[in-house]
Amino acid sequence: MRREVYNKFIKIFGGYFMDQTKMKNRAIDMLHGPIFKGIVLFAIPILISSIFQQFYNTMDTFIVGKFLGDHSLAAIGSVNSVFDLINGFALGIGNGLAIVTARAYGSQDERLLKKSVAGAIVIGILSSVGITVIALLGIKPLMHAINVPNAIFNEAYSYIFWIILFLTVMFAYNLAAGLLRSIGNSFMPLVFLIFSSLLNIGLDILFITQFHMGVAGAAIATVIAQGISVILCFFYIIKSTPILIPNRNDFVFDKELYKDLAGQGYAMAMQSAIVNSGSVILQSGINGLGQYVIAGHTAARKLYMFCNMPFTSMGQGIATFISQNKGANNPSRIRRGMLDAYIYDFIIAVILTVLLLFAAPAMVRFISSSNNPIVVGNGSLYLRIVAPNYFILGILMQTRSALQGIGQKLLPLVSSVIEFIGKVIFVIIFIPQFKYMAVIFCEPSIWLIMTAYLLFVFWRDPFIKSGKKA
Could you give the maximum distance between any two Cα atoms of the chain, in Å? Predict the structure, then answer.
């Protein structure tokens, strides 16, 4: 019965893509041929995946705001930075482990590739269980520390509790999708994610409007929908990508390999954790500005996440491209790819700036389901001021991803520390004096400093400066 359901799904959503020979053609060759075209073709499914993945949280915001009101919207918004912290850590570990796998794939060493997959599975399981326990014990003290208002505390806790309880689901999806992308296949994770995103929307409406489960229903819908995407990913890997299936003897402990996997995975996870910890601290400053400011900023940040996606998807494409070409020992190809990525960042930033200049108020009203002028005004102001700085953010993301792709662990982490310290300074010094305007200018100011640092260390790296030709 389960096999029949799976095959029916594939027939509807995958069609011919399940054929073994045809699926090989879905993997993008990043080691040969046109560079920019290869990266963009690889990044487009990641971009679409990111859009649908953001639906998990954004549809919670939209449906909660529409059916439960500003009070419940503020409850979700007050712990949104905590959600980003958890999700970012899971994504960081998955992407970090996949970077090592991508280097093994680029070196065309199949045994090393399978051993890296085995190690990634072991590290992923241990990490997800450990972090779930720590998060369950620490969530209430953390919520008190970031000044979640008493009026919305219980609602906020009921939402974030269910997300934390099933962290293993989030880890499993990010690992499975990361492994597929490491060999150049960014398409099939998209297929499964589209299905589960649509399911998430339906479950949100069902749990909130029919079962009256409140914000907890939105969280449970997210977990169920993401769990289905995990199942579909693993079914596909087993059936159609045998290169990613390790044998029993591939699970033998290899000290150097596990050190590389753990180092890359935890370096990227810690980078994300430090960045999002800074956001949690920043949220504590926002939470002190009142319920309507929280609601407006929450809606704006949802839109910001969508605007951010063209840059994050390119960053993931750059990380895979550079990891594979590092394994193939081709720095000249890496240099050309980075310059193409910077041009892409500029074009996307101009488009987004023009769009938000005219459409920000309507977009904030749509996401928040609110006509409150304070909510709409604060959200629109944030989007319009931040938009011109997206070019800087794009360069920051591509350069940091590139450093990770060539195997640097500490240097990208330093940039995250810069961001963390900057947000702490804004919360302590500037937000009490300048209120919401300080919140708006916080991140763009920090991006400038981070980008200058990352450009300096990347382009001075000995491997990048070497004269090898593509």
Answer: 64
